């Protein structure tokens, strides 16, 4: 609860709304105690006095009644009626929703069909019909508004109840012999309460407005009793000559509703954890770079990555995802980057053209020299010129990485059109040529399909074709075969291998699978906990891994034809978040060869021949 | 085509449900319609006779089926206050409501999606803050109050636009005259819905921007403007469409208030008058008619959704 209040008070607008609401509440509910004139006393000699007249702070209405007094009494009435309506419909709606969601089947069907029919009415029609039956009057208007909003609650609550009712702890409660009624009260209700609160807080403003509306139409409160709506209705007949009788109640309705909305939004944000994690922040087109000092990079390699450090920023704290990653790729070389999930390999790959979503991504340090120019020093337009042109990407799961609502052909043409400023016709020719290149049969068909209509292998071929559009010099393939089954995987790999050899492409190939990497890569980098732990020629690493992590990782690869054996696993789990302060070897806690001094200092990567390893006691 | 038929058939239970609710709510009304029509000086014989003529001596369920039978044939009964067939009155009025609500609906969809998208794309800039603030104010303003303030400002003080009505009484009646009269009520009616659409659009665009396929577009080097218009909006429209369907209901509802404030000769004003005069058949017919139109409209939204999103099959 205190946490909740803290979250709300951090949101300044919600706090403002809350305070405004409290003031309105206190003043209007104290109105019987305040030294106000009687709101219903008629004094025709004082008709239509303007605000700030003597004795009448807000003036008087068409019958000479004190507007301030009427306003406060009216506010009190409007709030009472609106909130009562909200509570009534929340109660009935939640009960219906819970029952429908919990019992399911026929009960659910019957209740929800009725709710569907009720929702088929524009709300005011139903309210008007109900008022027509009950007759005009404030109480009846309240009933109408409450009834009209029941379906909304029932639907929301049913949805949540269904998810909760299918969880294990409900089964457990059932097995322990709890009655359905008790389960609903003790297990379900506490879990749906936040949803009920959020729904009330987001609808109570509407309900106050709706009752005011019915009163405005003359169907709510009847004279001499007045809520804000009927005050506004009365004011309307004198709108042109004496507008103050309208804008006094109108402004109050506005204040109440805006306060409720601000506060309600605050409650929703505080109870919706997705928002507090900052996921609904727009990702920038390039990763934010907060480099602390220049990294000297004199390498003349085709691609040279030096001390690349990328972090995610949450609550003003940096959590490193990759730390001081350095490697080179030569022209025409295929470099494998291998590691478990969370090892920092994908982040490294995306950082090369600043594609890490930012926020929360931040490149803290490093240099990425591509053909002599540092990408991290380029502006957005320069980076955009590189992307999909000289450097292109193939991503993991093409079902989520291809646009679901754009036809394959259009997606293929796009990179060509963006970078060549040429007409669609040439782009179409080029695109179809590429589809042929990646061995797609009946090109015309595929061209006019949507991604979901193709098989996984086809989709990945399309992604490869897309990456080849502008004859790139470097392809970064981020687990391009992970989502595919083994035979298709083999086809895609051999396709990639042929293409790169034919075209002299450099490839950075990211994978978690040694088997895949050994088929296609010249050299391999092994990453663990955001750092490179070993680097070397593929055949050397495959035959003689030096880092304990690499060797243990390779133990986990099943071999066909080597008889039965138990597949080993690496005990423990990789570090998920790396804090700057931690020192020593990050693999130490899972390492079978750990010695005391492994945790004393940061381990440097040591070069020996044409390989590197980050370990004090590497296998020799 | 097959689906269209299927969807229309599935609307039948909903429409039947609506008739049941409308009929039985209305028949709960206390008092004797015959007495209401004939006045309190009617002789018991006359009341009995009229009740027989109206079929009110029969049972409730029987009466429902008679009413339903007439309804299917387009006979909604006679309004006793106006002394003309209910359907004729509704059709005449509905035209005006359709013009008003239709304009407001188009306004709220186009403007709402547009400013919501801009707001998301310029998140945390001054543009975004201005839009967010305006939207917040907009959705908190009761449309009837806003309408009144607009009349004061634009019609009374500045005299740019007519105070009320649909056409000028003298010499009006052409299209320009209609537009002139339509501007204020349409804007007043659209404002809240525009705010709601803008808010939802902003959130949904922000969510879409996080998707993998947007990263793919950026990895291809697509310009930000094209990322927005070709990739983000394409998806955003599909996710917002159901919300637009809901807004149509809000706009129709709001039109009741706006028609009163601007003296617009539509169904909403007719209904309120009918309730105050206890003209039951007119209320019944009006509610039934508008609800049925709303159901059909939502079917149209469904079909559009299907057309725009090939994944739904």
Summarize the structure in short:
The complex is a heterodimer of chains A (620) and B (313). By secondary structure, chain A is an alpha/beta fold. Chain A contains 22 helices and 13 strands.
- What is the name of the CATH topology of the domain at 69-276 in chain A? MetI-like fold
- The total count of strands of chain A amounts to 13
**Which chain pair shows the most residues in contact?**
A-B, 77 and 82 residues
Spatial sequence of strands, sheet with the most strands of chain A = 7-8-9-4-10-11-13-12
Average pLDDT for all residues of chain A: 85
User: DSSP strand (E) fraction of chain B?
Assistant: under 5%
Instruction: State the distance separating the first and last CA atoms of chain A.
Output: 59 Å
Question: Main β-sheet of chain B, in a few words?
Answer: 2 strands, antiparallel
User: What form of chain A results from the Cα inertia axes?
Assistant: elongated
| Strands of chain B, count | 2
In words, what does this structure look like?
- The complex is a heterodimer of chains A (620) and B (313).
- Among the domains of chain A are: 69-276, MetI-like (MetI-like fold), CATH 1.10.3720; 391-471, no CATH class.
- Helices cover 50% and strands 13% of the residues of chain A.
- Chain A contains 22 helices and 13 strands.
- Chain A has an eight-stranded mixed β-sheet with strand order 7-8-9-4-10-11-13-12, sandwiched between helices. In chain A, strands 1, 2, 3, 5 and 6 form a five-stranded mixed β-sheet that branches.
- In chain A, α8 (180-216) packs antiparallel against α10.
- Chain A starts with a helix and ends in a 7-residue tail after the last strand.
- Chain B has 313 residues and is an all-alpha fold.
- In chain B, 77% of the residues lie in helices and 1% in strands.
- Chain B has twelve helices and two strands; from the N terminus they run ααααββαααααααα.
- Chain B has a two-stranded antiparallel sheet.
- In chain B, β1 and β2 (84-85) form a beta hairpin.
- In chain B, α5 (86-121) runs antiparallel to α6, α6 packs across α8 (175-209) and α9 (212-219) packs across α10.
- Chain B starts with a helix and ends in a 5-residue tail after the last helix.
- The model of chain B has no long low-confidence stretch (mean pLDDT 86).
- The chains are: A alpha/beta (620), B mainly alpha (313).
- At the A-B interface, α4, α5, α8, α9 and α10 of A face α1, α6, α7, α8 and α9 of B.
């Amino acid at each position: 609860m205190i946490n909740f209040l803290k979250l709300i008070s951090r949101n300044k607008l919600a706090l403002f709304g809350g305070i405004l609401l409290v003031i309105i509440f206190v003043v209007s509910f104290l109105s019987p105690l305040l030294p106000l004139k009687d709101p219903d006393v008629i004094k025709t000699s004082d008709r239509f006095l303007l605000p700030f007249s003597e004795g009448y702070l807000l003036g008087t209405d068409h019958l000479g009644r004190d507007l301030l007094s009427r306003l406060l009494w009216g506010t009190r009435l409007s709030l009472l009626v609106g909130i009562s309506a909200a509570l009534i419909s929340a109660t009935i709606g939640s009960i219906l929703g819970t029952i429908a969601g919990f019992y399911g089947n026929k009960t659910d069907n019957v209740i929800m069909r009725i709710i569907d029919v009720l929702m088929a009415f524009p709300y005011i029609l139903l309210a008007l019909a109900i008022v027509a039956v009950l007759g005009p009057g404030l109480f009846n208007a309240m009933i109408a508004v409450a009834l009209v909003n029941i379906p909304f609650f029932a639907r929301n609550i049913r949805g949540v109840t269904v998810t909760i009712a299918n969880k294990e702890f409900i089964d457990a409660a059932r097995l322990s012999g709890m009655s359905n009624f008790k389960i609903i009260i003790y297990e379900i209700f506490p879990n749906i309460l936040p949803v009920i609160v959020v729904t009330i807080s987001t609808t109570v403003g509407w309900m106050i407005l709706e009752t005011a509306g019915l009163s405005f139409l003359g169907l709510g409160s009847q004279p001499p009793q007045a809520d804000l709506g009927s005050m506004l209705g009365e004011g309307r007949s004198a709108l042109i000559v004496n507008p103050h009788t309208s804008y006094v109640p109108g402004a109050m309705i506005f204040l109440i509703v805006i306060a409720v909305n601000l506060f309600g939004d605050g409650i929703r944000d505080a109870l919706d954890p997705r928002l507090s994690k900052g996921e609904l922040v727009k990702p920038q087109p390039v990763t934010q770079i907060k480099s602390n000092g220049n990294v000297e990079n004199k390498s003349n390699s085709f691609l040279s990555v030096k001390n690349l450090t990328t972090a995610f920023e949450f609550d003003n704290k940096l959590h490193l995802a990759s730390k001081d990653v350095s490697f080179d790729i030569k022209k025409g070389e295929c470099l494998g980057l291998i590691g478990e999930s969370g090892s920092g390999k994908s982040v490294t790959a995306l950082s090369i053209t600043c594609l890490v979503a930012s926020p929360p991504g931040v490149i803290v340090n490093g240099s990425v020299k591509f053909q002599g120019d540092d990408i991290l020093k380029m502006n957005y337009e320069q980076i955009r010129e590189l992307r999909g042109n000289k450097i292109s990407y193939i991503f993991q799961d093409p079902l989520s990485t291809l646009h679901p609502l754009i036809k394959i052909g259009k997606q293929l043409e796009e990179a060509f059109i963006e970078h060549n400023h040429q007409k669609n016709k040439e782009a179409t020719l080029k695109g179809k040529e590429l589809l042929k290149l990646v061995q797609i049969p009946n090109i015309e068909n595929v061209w006019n399909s949507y991604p979901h209509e193709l098989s996984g292998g086809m989709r990945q071929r399309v992604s490869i074709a897309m990456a080849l559009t502008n004859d790139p010099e470097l392809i970064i393939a981020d687990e391009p075969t992970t989502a595919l089954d083994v035979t298709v995987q083999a086809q895609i790999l051999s396709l990639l291998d042929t293409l790169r050899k034919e075209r002299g492409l450099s490839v950075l190939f990211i994978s978690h699978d040694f088997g895949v990497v050994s088929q296609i890569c010249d050299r391999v980098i092994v990453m663990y906990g955001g750092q490179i732990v070993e680097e070397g020629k593929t055949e050397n690493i495959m035959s003689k891994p030096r880092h304990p992590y690499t060797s243990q990782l390779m133990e986990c690869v099943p071999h066909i034809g080597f008889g039965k054996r138990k597949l080993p696993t690496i005990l423990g789990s990789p570090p998920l978040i790396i804090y700057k302060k931690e020192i020593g070897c990050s693999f130490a806690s899972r390492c079978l060869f750990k010695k005391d001094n492994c945790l004393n200092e940061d381990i440097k990567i040591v070069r020996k021949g044409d390989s590197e390893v980050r370990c004090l006691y590497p296998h020799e | 085509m097959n689906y269209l038929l299927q969807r229309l058939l599935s609307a039948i239970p909903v429409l039947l449900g609506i008739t049941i609710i409308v009929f039985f709510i209305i028949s709960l009304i206390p008092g004797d319609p015959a007495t209401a029509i004939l006045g309190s000086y009617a002789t018991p014989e006359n009341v009995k006779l009229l009740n027989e003529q109206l079929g009110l001596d029969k049972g409730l369920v029987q009466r429902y089926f008679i009413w339903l039978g007439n309804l299917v044939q387009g006979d909604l009964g006679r309004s006793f206050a106006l002394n003309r067939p209910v359907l004729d009155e509704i059709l005449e009025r509905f035209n005006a409501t359709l013009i008003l609500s239709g304009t407001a609906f188009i306004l709220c969809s186009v403007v709402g999606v547009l400013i919501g998208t801009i707001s998301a794309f310029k998140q945390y800039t001054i543009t975004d803050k201005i839009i967010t603030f305006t939207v917040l104010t907009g959705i908190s303003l009761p449309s009837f109050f806003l309408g009144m303030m607009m009349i004061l400002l634009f019609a009374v003080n500045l005299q740019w636009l007519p105070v009320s009505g649909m056409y000028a009484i003298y010499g009006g009646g052409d299209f320009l005259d209609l537009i002139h009269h339509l501007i204020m009520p349409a804007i007043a009616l659209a404002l809240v819905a525009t705010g709601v659409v803008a808010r939802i659009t902003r959130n949904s665009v922000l969510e879409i921007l996080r998707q993998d396929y947007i990263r793919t577009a950026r990895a291809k080097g697509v310009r930000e403007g094209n990322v927005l218009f070709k990739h983000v909006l394409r998806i955003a429209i599909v996710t917002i469409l159901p919300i637009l369907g809901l807004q149509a209901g809000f706009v129709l509802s709001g039109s009741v208030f706006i028609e009163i404030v601007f003296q617009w000769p539509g169904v909403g004003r007719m209904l309120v008058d009918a309730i105050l005069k206890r003209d039951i058949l007119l209320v019944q017919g009006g509610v039934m008619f508008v609800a049925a139109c709303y159901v059909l409209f939502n079917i149209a939204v469904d079909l559009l959704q299907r057309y725009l999103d090939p994944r739904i099959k």
